[in-house]
Amino acid sequence: MAERVKQHSSKARGRPPLADDDLVDEIKAIISEMPTYGYRRVHAILRRKARSESRPWPNAKRVYRVMKVHDLLLQRHTGAIDSRRHDGRVAVAHSNLRWCSDGFEIGCDNKEKVRVAFALDCCDREAIAHVATTEGIKSEDVQDLVITAVENRFGRINTLPKPIEWLTDNGSCFIAADTKSLLRDIGMEPCTTPVRSPQSNGMAEAFVKTFKRDYVSVNPIPNAETVIAQLPLWFEHYNMLHPHKALGYRSPREFLNRQTEI
Q1: Is the Cβ–Cβ distance between 41 and 34 less than 8 Å?
Q2: Do residues 136 and 117 make contact, with C-beta atoms less than 8 angstroms apart?
Q3: What is the C-alpha end-to-end distance of the chain, expressed in Å?
Q4: I need a surface site. Which of 144, 195, 225, 251 has the fewest CB within 10 A?
Q5: Is the distance from CB of 129 to CB of 152 less than 8 angstroms?
Q6: What is the pTM of this model?
Q7: Structure letter (DSSP) for residue 250
Q8: Per-residue pLDDT for the chain (262 aa), expressed as one digit of tens each?
């Protein structure tokens, strides 16, 4: 009896560990393209690829373990946490209820500046449209942004089928009379954040941080011409492929497609 127990206990229990070589190669390929992706977004990309090939995918814990063993994890963030008060909830339950907009600046290697403004849906997180210039963002630029965003979502129409809230900060280009007039004419409802509380447009702020981290910081930005030419590709990659935590680590377009299937 004792001998049988000894033989039984010496055997390895559970499933044998899976070989990691192929998984490591897949992970390295992903982070070579998107070096700012952590293990959850890497897992989302692996899952998307496996689904398209009708094969099983590794779970998130295995991806974390493999990336840790092979020193592929991102460095843990140790910066200060933003403690500013956030007034109100920006996210909404359905698409085309609220769009938010903001602007940001990209400094090029040759000291040129590119200013970008964008429109973002507060449900599906799609960056619906953007404008870029080497000058300051003006009211005319925001009006072009609004028209392009509406056309991208609804085609060429004069008035929206249902009102959409347009959430921005109090920048002069957003609160200009001409901008507000266009918004109301097309059926949008202008809404601005409280004065000295830009964090109330937190979704737009978060998008700017994501865009600068995952695209601007890891791509060549020698001059304004190069940056402006690259922007459409970066926005398209974000919309088509960027896994978003609030969307179940789906990209905005994946989320939108899933909504139409339900």
Answers
A1: yes
A2: no
A3: 60
A4: 195
A5: yes
A6: 0.81
A7: B
A8: 555 545 555 455 555 556 688 899 999 999 888 898 998 989 999 999 998 999 999 988 999 999 999 999 887 654 444 444 444 567 899 999 999 999 999 999 999 999 999 999 999 999 999 999 999 999 999 999 999 999 999 999 999 999 999 999 999 999 999 999 999 999 999 999 875 555 567 899 999 999 999 999 999 999 999 999 999 999 999 999 999 999 999 999 999 998 876 6
How far is Cα 216 from Cα 210, in angstroms, rounded to an integer? 9
| Contacts for 32 with CB less than 8 Å, ≥ 6 apart | none
Are β-strands 113-121 and 164-168 bridged in parallel, bridged antiparallel, or unpaired? unpaired
Question: For residue 62, which of 41, 45, 39 has the smallest C-alpha distance?
Answer: 39
Q: What is the dihedral of CA 21, 243, 259, 95, to 10 degrees?
A: 180
Residue 212's nearest CA partner among 245, 242, 243, 234 is 234
